[in-house]
Amino acid sequence: MSKKISGNRHISEELLARYLENKVSEEERKEVLNYISSNETSLEEMVTLSKEIAYLEIETQKSESIYSRSLLSKEDLDDDLKNQIAGQGKQSMAAYGSESKTCAIDAQRIILQDYGINVSNSELLSIAKSNGWFIDRLGSPLDFVGELLNYFNVKSVQMRNANIYHLIHELSQGHRIIVGVDSKDLSKNEALKDYDDVLKGEEADHVLVVAGIDTTNPENVQITLTDPTNSDFQKSFPAKQFLQAWEDSGYFMVATTHPAPLTLNPEMQNFDYKRGYIQKIADITYDEIIKRLAIEGYIQQKNNWLKNLLIAIIIFLILCISVFYLWRFFTPINMRISLLEDKNYKIPSMLFEKGVLSLSYANMQEEKYNLSSDTKSIVSNDINYKYKNEKAHIVFSAKGYQTIDTVIKINKTINLPLRRDNSLSIVFGHIIDASTNKPIEGVSLFLQDISTKSGALGKFEIDIPFNKQFPSQRLIAQKKGYQRWVGTYQPSQTNPWEIVLIPE
């Protein structure tokens, strides 16, 4: 069925319906638009006709065409239809490109590659379909653009009503961006684009990757875009033209939350990488951009005086810590070595009469200290602080005490436990008859309050506890039929005592 528009020309209502639903070929689209542009009155009549079709589509619920709905003014609709059209932003489709309409899938694949994640389009499409993020023959609803990034742990945020300042802020941090656009606004044929906007409404049908911003000429800022349907195609558009195309998506934007490690953004002309942001776009400084973003709540702007106070406090603390450590480093320490008898070996009745202690550490000359019975501790002065906790070698020797040869860590206080020499802990030997030179068994022996008897071969051994050890010991030996024997010797673990008893 066809409907007369003006003059003798006719146009098929079927073609018009398919055009309004964006289901025509490029040749058919041009046929409709060329026809309208050739007649001054045809556009008004075309709009009237398209409204009638839009009413019919909505009332019969035969179509969910947002293009058709966008032609109806608010005055033409009741409250229910107004609510339906109010949700058109969420129903907008990123559906540009081939019949599969996978531009949103392609855009997310490009960004995943920037993060070192290589996934094929077919795999991404399968994931999107299984999660309801892609609708066959319709494309990807804008609300779901970015879900594939999150699926592969490339965290992203989605925003509507964004502006060019948001783009600058995200790009300056190395984040990757996808925007929704009306592809007609970026097309070369401006005349046909205008008729499309009137008849089909201004609405996004495509997504692009924002590669960078060229501010070389502040009077003509260029936005560099990558077309996901042809990743090799990259083109810069005047900021005004880009904003017109972006506006039709409600300024829809998806931005990653972390810098892309594999992307250096070579398209970011005039970008101060050392400073970390674009210093100026047109006549607006970056500081002013930050203020505007803070006012609208997009970012948190820190209070300058509070920030400066915090910096001052941190610097002050760093200085204090530095001064303290410098003072500690250049101030020598004194190490006190306390001489303490080990409680388990302590013999109060005998202190060493004299001894020697030597100390050596690092490449310093060995220090020697002579000790007397009154020495309780020694102090090594003026040890450089850098040697603190370094190893030091100590050797202690004194008559009647075990030699100590050990390694310690240099510190302010060192305790050196002393132990008596165990060579005074035993008296042993054998007893023989003076007339026969034969061993005598059963001889009673007494050393202090310790007693024992000789064995079958005349041998004996007496263990002396620590508290009864002395440099010399008095020993008594007696047996009936022999004279009593008394002798004084130095205990030894190597020299036996030989006792000779004389018969009575």
Report on this structure.
By secondary structure, the chain is of the alpha+beta class. It folds into four domains: 2-86, no CATH class; 93-295, Cathepsin B, Chain A (Alpha-Beta Complex); 333-420, Sandwich (Immunoglobulin-like), CATH 2.60.40; 423-501, Immunoglobulin-like (Sandwich), CATH 2.60.40.1120. 30% of the residues lie in helices and 27% in strands. It is built from 14 helices and 26 strands. It has helices at 13-20, 26-37, 42-60, 66-70, 79-86, 88-91, 103-114, 121-130, 147-151, 164-172, 190-200, 239-247, 286-295, 304-330; strands spanning 2-6, 9-12, 93-94, 140-141, 156-159, 177-181, 206-214, 222-226, 234-238, 253-256, 280-281, 284-285, 333-341, 354-361, 367-372, 377-383, 391-398, 404-409, 413-418, 426-433, 444-447, 450-453, 459-463, 473-478, 485-489, 497-501. The protein has a six-stranded antiparallel beta sheet with strand order 5-10-6-7-8-9. Strand 24 and strand 25 form a beta hairpin. Helix 2 (26-37) packs across helix 11 (190-200). 28% of the residues are buried.
Question: Percent of residues in beta strands?
Answer: 25-35%
CATH homologous superfamily placement of the largest domain? Cysteine proteinases
- Which structural class fits the helix and strand makeup? alpha+beta
The largest sheet has its strands arranged as 5-10-6-7-8-9
| Mean pLDDT across all amino acids | 75
Return the CATH topology of the largest domain.
Cathepsin B, Chain A
Number of strands: 26
Q: What kind of sheet is the major sheet?
A: 6 strands, antiparallel
CATH C-level name of the largest domain: Alpha Beta
CATH architecture of the largest domain: Alpha-Beta Complex
Tally of individual helices? 14
Rounded Rg: 50 Å
Outline the low-pLDDT stretches.
1-8, 58-91
Helical residue percent band: 25-40%
Taken together, the total number of domains comes to 4
Terminus-to-terminus distance: 159 Å
Using the alpha-carbon principal axes, give the shape. elongated
